[in-house]
Amino acid sequence: MVVVCGCSGDNGWNFVVDADLSNYQGSQSKPSRSSEKRINQKKIKNMLFHYLKIAFRGLFRYKWQNIVCIAGLTIGFSAFVLGGYWWYWENHFDDFHPNARYTYGITTTGIGKVSDGSPMELDQLHRDDANWMLENIPEIEKYCSTNRSRLSYIKNGKEVNVIGLSVDSTFFSMFYSEFIDGSYKNVPYDDSCIVLTERAAMKHFGKTDCTGELFPGGNRKVVGVIRD
Known about the structure:
By secondary structure, this protein is α+β, with helices and mostly antiparallel strands. The chain is 35% helix and 27% strand. The protein contains 5 helices and 9 strands; from the N terminus they run ββααββαββαββαβ. β3 and β4 (119-122) form a beta hairpin.
């Protein structure tokens, strides 16, 4: 209920209002949730547009300064990524082998020199030296000697070259290899047998179950195929 009383005086109208407005809903009612959501979305869009406008205005106003900064940031970030990739490669190379952390490659220096007179580093070690280290250094459990090997044969009138490794009997006990066909056990290490990777078997035989067949261009028998 609303009661309004007024009277005229020397200074204008005087009003006395007695009102109960607890249940009154006028034209200024609270907007619905959907309306509030649309209003907030519009505010956010306007805010983002305002920030982007200020950012681009600053970029074009200080053009050369921003070009130098962006170029420097790009070069620095690229160097960081390449450096991180190099570090990861150096510290995770062939780490799928069970004892990768305890496996080392031994080289020999001082035997020869390169053209500028500096010592030549060779990935070679005499077998007598390897046996001496195995007998006198208790930390060394076993060693494996490897040698690069090359095979070639003629296929469809073209020469096909195959690069591999000649290894001794401790190779597969030091370096993990998953055989998908055949096995290395009870195999003579006299260059009469060959183990292929999965990709090499598909390339030269067109299949992976080629154990027992002769490798093209020689008398080497395939004794196993390992997963790539």
